[in-house]
Amino acid sequence: MAAESWAAALALLAIDPAGLGGAVLRGPGGPGPEAFIAGIRRLLPERRMFRLPPHIGADRLAGSLYVAETLRTGKPCLDPGLLAEARGGVLLIASGERLTPSKAGFIAAAVDERPGEYLLIVCDEGQDDERAPPALAERAAFLLDLPEDFDETLTAWQDLAAARALLPNVVLPDVITAALCGAALSLGINSLRPALFACAAARATAALDGRREVSQDDATAAVRLVLAPRALRFPVPEAAAEPETPPPPPASDENDANKSDGNPSAREMSELLLAAVKASLPQGLLAALEQNLRQSQAKSGAGAASEKLGVTRGRPAGTRAGEPRNGARLALVDTLRAAAPWQPLRRRAAPGRQGLIVTSTDLRIRRYQQKRETTAIFVVDASGSAAVHRMAEAKGAVELLLADCYVRRDRTALIAFRGKAAEVLLPPTRSLQRARKSLADLPGGGGTPLAAGIAQAVEVATQVRRAGGTPLAVFLTDGKANIARDGAASRPAALADAEAAARMLRLAGVRALMIDLADARGGPAQRVAEAMAAQYLALPRADAASISRAVAAAMPTDA
User: Fold this and answer.
1) Domains by residue range for the chain, with CATH
2) Whether this model's pTM surpasses 0.70
3) pLDDT band at 50 (very low <50, low <70, confident <90, very high)
4) What is the C-alpha to C-alpha distance for residues 85 and 83, in angstroms, rounded to an integer?
């Protein structure tokens, strides 16, 4: 879309900020967004601008009790929050793609509670599937991909004051309203807000042109600016319509009137608007939007919008100085203990004050230590003639550890390496039945790709850590690697690759335990254990109970 169109969007916002809500500025920060923001400042000087950083606390955003001032004065003191301060102004949200859903919900609720009092300018610098929260994008009329050479002075020639004065007298015909709503539905837009924004943009466009009634051209411009960037699909052309039956007598007068005045119906005008949208869309844009929508819906699970919680629960781990904000809990006893020694001095400084005098320096908040779930990742050597015995030992150890998972809330995973590759037989789980099923029909024999097993352990451990758990890699092998990472049968190359993979595990910070199943100590398994900084245990005749005890001893007591 040309720069003149972005200038038109800026001018429409200046004419009807209450009806259009705001704009989302997509793309990397640079001269384009800065010029648009400068245009808002110039065209709406009466609106104060409030910048909202993405890392703002919930208490500062929505307001809370100002504990320190309340204790100092002895009366309740409220911090109204940034949203209350920004009423009637411009709310500039920097890096909107980093805003958490809960904070976006606070802003959306404030906009809905006081319609027209906020003008949202959201800077969205996200890439790929990173976008500003949908709750904010739905409450702004324009979704703009600003060019770097945007010039906000393009609106200097327009008489915006006259357009603002004319706007209350602009009439929106019912047929155009129905056409705009029909176009929104045809483009796959199910929310009512974009259609309302399109109606407001059409009225503002007519006022900008000095007319008191919205025309089809105004509706076309509104569809291009408001609805086209939100399009998720384009309607498929319908088959040839069947011959129309004669209309009933009551509707004949109305139909004759429509035919006599030559005005198109709402459906015909909606088709004309869709044709204008189709002509203005770049090639392949709708297909890309539909693909992005499917990807975002696939990722909209529990982890898609998850955010890191503050330390507000878990095992108590003492207190620290600080104010009870953003969910932190006040440690009342420790606060009183900190304030007690200073009471004589404070009473002499404030003789008229009654009761305990507490200042902000006395406040203490609780600290909590959350137990992180531990996942024991068994990496079993399933190669050679002893594979059957090793798998029986691993199966017994997994079953013994799973019996304790209900108490410790731990998980286990199983990786087997044989032939030329490693395979994840059992993803992290607490299910004993699933573990038995995965281990039941595991074949043995073939080469020993130890490096592939270690690399697979690094990948699983990384996934566990991303999910908030603590991984522990347990290797059951004699260390006699003979298959390199490229699949070649070479003992020196295989051992070198295994040591290199072991160093990757150490750099990843994964705690490891090496159980050497060879007949003698000091073999290649010990060298690999040293490379990965793992605890080394030589158990040539290990059984399930001894392996289980070794793993339980290596697990963190309070992960």
Assistant:
1) 1-158 (3.40.50.300), 163-234+264-295 (1.10.8.80), 319-368 (no CATH), 374-554 (3.40.50.410)
2) no
3) very high
4) 5
